[in-house]
Amino acid sequence: MVKFCEQMNLDEPKLIFSDRDLRKMVNDNREFKDAKQSTLGLSWHSRDTKLKYNYVYLNLNSTDYVAQLIETLAHELVHIKYPNLKHSDNFYNKVNSIMIGERFE
Asked: What gap in Å lies between CA 78 and CA 21, rounded to an integer?
């Protein structure tokens, strides 16, 4: 994560792995259950949560593949760096750029 954040000129977010911490970030049990069953990762931008830090949740139980978790981390960091950028070719190009080591502001 440090490398990706340096490439993106982004402060490191707080990482969430535990159910207890995830429960603090979601609104209700349904959202928690959805996150645990069908999500590889989630992110929360400090401007939306009014918290001091950005947060990234990685669902370690969702995959056995480290590469998929690394790509999910890059994906969530793009959401934090560009909070208004929706899933699009431009969004995925940024994820791919991070994965191959490009630097950008």
From this structure: 22
CATH number at residue 61: 3.30.2010
Is 22 a domain residue?
Answer: yes
For residues 55 and 34, which has the higher predicted lDDT (pLDDT)? 55
Residues 8/75, Cβ–Cβ less than 8 Å: no
Structure-token match 């190009």, residue found:
93
Check whether 67 has a pLDDT greater than 80: yes
Phi and psi angles of residue 56, each rounded to the nearest 5 degrees, phi first: -130, 130
